[in-house]
Design a protein that fits this description.
507 residues, alpha/beta, Rossmann fold, Transcription Regulator spoIIAA, 8-stranded mixed sheet, 7-stranded mixed sheet, 20 helices, 43% helix, elongated, binds 1,4-dihydronicotinamide adenine dinucleotide
């Protein structure tokens, strides 16, 4: 197994901004001497003072001893110029996101560092292969992509360009692990893992919003309370900033030669054009001006509890529903599985979305009173569930289906009859993108799940989630979305198709 760099190795960090300072803190805390360089006069010294204050805070909280905090602070040193970094064994660049400027910096570095020095870039969007093209020894360059804030976020993507030597990426993987991080390996492709696979999290919500499926507050609440995501897509985009989020979407879309999988949204373009950049500008999807309350999600008011509830089969949703009804002392009967029906009440049939609209399901299955439920991460624990009602469904039947879910303790949000509701289509597309990343050799299945859990705090890795839903179900959802929209965006990854044919879980 490749060894991590010894703590005797001097680490140089270039760029003392948000990321560089965080990376310097991580390396110093791990025991390395660290030189920090920034071309803004005084920036490196200022960043070091900030890092030392962090170490002191950690010592005050008992997270490290006072001696360790002092020693870690003393391992940091500001550098004046690139020539001062000649004794570094690893250089991590975290300067402005610009290919030409990064290339020039690495060329300057090559002229001063030793033969064995590893060069790394924290770039989040520039090709490592392209940066390496300017170097005389591109094999020593790799991506070392931390997440913000670097001291807190566990994930590091170690990115290999076309020329990167295996021992260089292996050494960086071992070193990141020695620094207490969880490294994953990725081939240098647009967005690497996280910034690529996360695109549908925003894109599907934007699509549903564009089509009037529901308002932002409702969709956010469903994604949190049913999907188990820490933040809904709209509040998250507002926090990231629409300028930043839209730029990443555009850069990944362009880098994939305008693949419709990644095509940006007009809604977000509008927000950027208007200067409604999110929290930082006081307005995005939500209004952050003083005194403005966050809108509440649309929730169906309490409806009558139906008396003829039947729960069908042993699916996760049916079992959870039965448990919840029992816990709430609601009487119901249980019956053997009946196709995909989860429950019936008052003449309505409740099913989980398979990517068709409720109206199409009602037509295809000749069941006019169809009500569809969205996916939940855990039907036993979800506090909210989204539903959609077929156009053919009569009102009393719809009310019975919703009343049933309310009786089981769900807050119910009724969305317009968009296909795949919101959690299911988002998770299906996250799994689809994950499968394509694996299929295209960017990373392995374990890496994509780790990356999405640790890089963006997803409650479950997309491929593990796809296994739990059933790969055939994910495939069906994608097929139906593709049929509805007739767009290449929803094409099913060849790897998902393969797994459906052999009925094999991702591992
Ligand atoms: P920042 O703007 O906070 O800091 C960049 C620093 O680099 C500034 O202090 C600037 O003075 C300095 N700098 C610029 N050109 C320089 C040069 N030629 N030589 C020395 N210093 C130079 O930027 P931030 O956010 O820290 O990003 C830095 C890099 O990290 C970028 O490549 C970015 O894509 C990447 N990144 C950013 C993340 C984020 O959330 N902000 C997350 C992961 C990666």
């Amino acid at each position: 197994m490749t060894q991590a760099l010894s703590t005797h190795t001097l680490v140089a960090v270039i760029g003392a901004g948000a990321m560089g300072a965080g990376i310097a803190q991580v390396a110093a805390a791990a025991g390395h001497g660290v030189k920090l360089l920034d071309n803004r006069p005084g920036a490196a010294a200022q960043a070091i003072a900030g890092i030392c204050a962090q170490f002191e805070k950690m010592a005050a909280k008992g997270k490290m001893s006072a001696e360790a905090a002092k020693a870690a602070g003393e391992r940091l040193q500001a550098a004046e110029q690139v020539a001062d970094l000649a004794d570094a064994g690893l250089v991590v660049e975290a300067i402005v996101e610009n290919l030409t400027i990064k290339q020039q910096l690495f060329k300057d570095l090559e002229a001063v560092v030793s033969e064995g020095c590893i060069l790394a870039s924290n770039t989040s969007s520039i090709s490592i292969t392209a940066i390496g093209a300017a170097l005389s020894k591109p094999q020593r360059l790799a991506g070392l992509h931390f997440f913000n804030p670097a001291p807190l976020m566990a994930l590091v993507e170690v990115v290999s360009g076309l020329a990167t030597a295996l021992e260089v990426s292996d050494t960086l993987i071992a070193t990141a692990a020695a620094w207490g991080k969880t490294p994953v390996h990725a081939k240098s492709t647009p967005g690497f893992i996280v910034n690529r696979v996360a695109r549908p999290y925003y894109a599907e919500a934007l699509r549903v919003l564009t089509e009037g499926g529901a308002d932002c507050a409702t969709l956010d609440a469903v994604m949190r309370e049913a999907g188990g995501f820490r933040m809904g897509p709209f509040e998250l985009m507002d926090m990231i900033g629409h300028d930043v989020n839209f730029a990443v979407t555009n850069s990944v879309w362009r880098a994939f030669f305008n693949d419709p999988r990644f095509s940006p949204s007009l809604i977000q373009q509008d927000l950027v054009d208007a200067g409604f950049l999110g929290k930082k500008s006081g307005r995005g999807f939500y209004n952050y001006q003083d005194g403005t309350d966050k809108p509440l999600p649309a929730t169906v008011p309490a409806l009558a509890r139906p008396h003829d509830i039947v729960v069908y089969g042993q699916s996760a949703a049916a079992l959870a529903l039965a448990n919840r009804l029992q816990a709430n002392h609601v009487s119901f009967t249980q019956a053997h599985a009946l196709g995909d029906t989860v429950a019936t009440a008052g003449g309505a049939t409740l099913r989980i979305t398979d990517g068709r609209t409720a109206t199409r399901c009602a037509f295809d299955l000749q069941t006019p009173n169809t009500v569809l439920m969205d996916l939940a991460l855990d039907y036993g624990k979800a506090t909210r569930l989204a539903v959609s009602v077929a156009a053919q469904c009569d009102e009393a039947a719809a009310n019975s289906a919703i009343g049933l879910l309310q009786a089981a303790g769900f807050a119910v949000s009724q969305l317009q009859d968009i296909p795949g509701l919101i959690v299911m289509r988002t998770v299906a597309m996250l799994a689809n993108e994950s499968a394509d990343a694996v299929n295209q050799g960017v990373c392995d299945a374990a890496a994509v799940d780790t990356a999405m859990r640790l890089g963006v705090n997803y409650p479950c890795g997309p491929l593990t989630w796809a296994n739990a839903i059933g790969i055939d179900t994910v495939s069906t959802v994608l097929t139906h979305l593709a049929q509805t929209y007739g767009e290449d965006r929803y094409r099913t990854s060849p790897l998902i198709q393969h797994h459906v044919f052999v009925q094999k879980a991702f591992s």
